[in-house]
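Inputs:
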Amino acid sequence: MNENSEYILETRNLNLYYGNFLAVADVNIKIRRHQITAIIGPSGCGKSTLLRAFNRMNELVPTARTEGEILFNNENIYDPSIDPVEVRRRIGMVFQKPNPFPKSIYENIAWGLRINGFRGSKSELDDLVEKALRDAALWDEVKDKLDQSGLSLSGGQQQRLCIARTIAVRPEVILMDEPASALDPIATLRIEELMQELKKNYTIIIVTHNMQQAARVSDYTAMMMLRNHEDRSGTVIEFDRTEVIFTNPRDKRTQDYVTGRFG
Amino acid sequence: MTAITSSLRDITFEQQLAQRQRRGKILEIAALIAILLGIAMLLTLLVDVVIDGLPWLRPQLFTEFPSRFPEKSGLRSAIQGSIWLMVFTSIMVIPIGVGAGIYLEEFAPRNRLTEFIEINIANLAGVPSIIYGLLGLGLFVRGLGLGRSLIAGALTMTLLVLPIIIVTTREAIRAVPRSIRLAALALGASQWETARDHVLVYSMPAILTGVILAMSRAIGETAPLITIGALTYIAFDLRGPLDIFTVLPIQIFNWVSLPQKGFHDLAAAGIIVLLVLLLSMNALAIWLRNRLFIRW
Amino acid sequence: MTNRRILEQKTVLVIIFLFALVSVFTTFGIIGVLLQETILFFEQVSIVEFLTGTRWTPLFASKKFGVLPLVNGTVLVAAGAMVVALPLGLLAAIYMSEYASTRARSVLKPFLEILAGIPTVVYGYFALLFVTPILKSIFPQTQAFNALSASIVMGFMILPTVASVSEDALSAVPRSLREAAYALGATKAEVATQVVVPAALSGIAAAFILAISRAIGETMIVAIAAGQQPKMTLNPLESIETMTAYIVQVSLGDTPHQSIAYQTIFAVGMLLFLMTLVMNIISYFFTKRFREVYE
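Outputs:
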């Protein structure tokens, strides 16, 4: 279909609930292919909830409910005919805290390939593991200890292992939920450099607390905030090119937030 | 999402998602069946017991002593024995168990001895109950010369139930927030006064619940009491703690072991009595939990 | 503080410290009592005969003291019980931890708790008078007392223990691991069997060993339903005798104190104690390893 259209994801009148609580209200944004989109905003405004809606991870919370549509290559991923398992294979996720499986480094990457039906030979699998680790800029550090536990790596290495694990199954979009918040500045820098590399082949959406990080890495920025203080629902109040958001925002609240005058 | 292809798709995945989901469904159904099998077995057991035992659930069951004839047999001595055994066991095990729990949770220094005591308690909880029977036989029946008496049985049960009471006491005490202790200490209370007037008082419903549940386990215990020599045929009323005695589960065991069908049905009736007793104790514990627990 | 208050605290502390020591005395008491009679026993019977002999007839005129038939009976029944309890218990745990809604849990869990709370003498009744007749109608060669009915019923009795300890282990696996697997496109069953269960493996192992230990020490079901014939057989349809059932058998008779028959139950008890002790220790280490990883 629209393989080469400009937009890969689009939300339409998206409302996200936990039970009766409307956590994220009325989001309408279009995500550009092969770009990095940042979602910023104060704590508790629903950034992670919105991010998790993009690959239906929200459904793992029993009370979660979704209204509206998210189009992925013009197809609604919330259509009843769509299996969330398939959505998540194509829209991967990297989490706030590194969460490698308590298996070997090799198995951390091979497992996703195997469950998704990779039927190639052992040497093909070896090649794919190596490629994923190279793409995640981790190969040189771990090539001699692939059989060691993923948990034996440092925090920054673990997070790159998680990125390698994600790209190994060839998603089209990678969702990143504050991927560097648990890391030191040097490890953070490496992840940010890596994102610039990955952008050539993947679309990235990143939630971040850190406005400098959003300004450094992203092409587009969605500014989220509570609509008002009565219903506590978060929404996207402004969405534009990152430089516009940071230098010349239309919304007064965005300006106050990015200049640190908020709250 | 068949139409979507990625520029990057250098690998062919044979997704077979439908098949994977089907396999998942099989696991879910198998797992549910495992639980339902357990429940089915429980219900079958209860129905079987009720069908066999209900006709024998008549006044004589409670007023008669055991006899050679099923029609004339009853649980009189067994019910007396069970009740008095519980009374004597409670009198001993509650102060010891709760006291030990308070000591370990509130006072014990972090040292080798404390660690040793804790390992001991954990290990005792895993010792088969019949071993406690051998302990009771060697220590109380023979060693202290108490004979096959009710008090020897109660002492044996005390040691058997003790680890459970200690563990539940500690859990109950641990639920009392630290801030409460600090508040009492800041008013000039000693550590013991804090434990006595606050920690113990606020955790009492939880401790009581634990004690009742532990006793409901003890009332069904059979093996250790057989080992210390509790008798199956007692045709007189219990007069004191040094009397020989029998209890409900031993009487049931005896009747199951006899060849006549009448005794088997009598055993079923005895089981109904035992289960009703257990159920009421559990109901009491649940009631306590819902009514008196403090939610911090 | 006044002297009276200080005195009260000191007195109470000494008393409750002694209460805490009761558990230590219990352990020493068990070991002491078992050891005392076991030593007397081994003054008359060689330890080699006891541990390697295949005939157990201490209550007959021609006395043989080979404990292996009792061990054989114990292991046979316990193994049968594990065939029922381990797979069903683990599946039940997976259902409770990964599939059941909050409401389904609140309905199912009490049933499992009741199953665990039924006195063992009741299970014995059920094994002898309900299960054995059914087995007889399927396998006519089934004996009136047999290992199989005891095994089946014991398996169901232990199922809730396996389920609840395993469920604790599965629930302790961090949510982040499940999320990582889902985000790669795994199905619920793949997450459960390939990520959660392997991550909880040492906790599940602890549950399994605890279950075996309980099966070996279980008394009333086998005393009622499995028979009193110590023999070396692997046929579960035959009458056998377990270590625990033997202790009950002797306890029910009028065995004079200081007779060799009286001492045998302590020797058998010692063996039983050591077997369960070893398993409890292994289970303890698995639990500890599991806690070190996730708590």
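Remarks. Chain B has two domains: 17-56, 59-292. Residues 209 and 285 of chain B are 5 Å apart (CA to CA).
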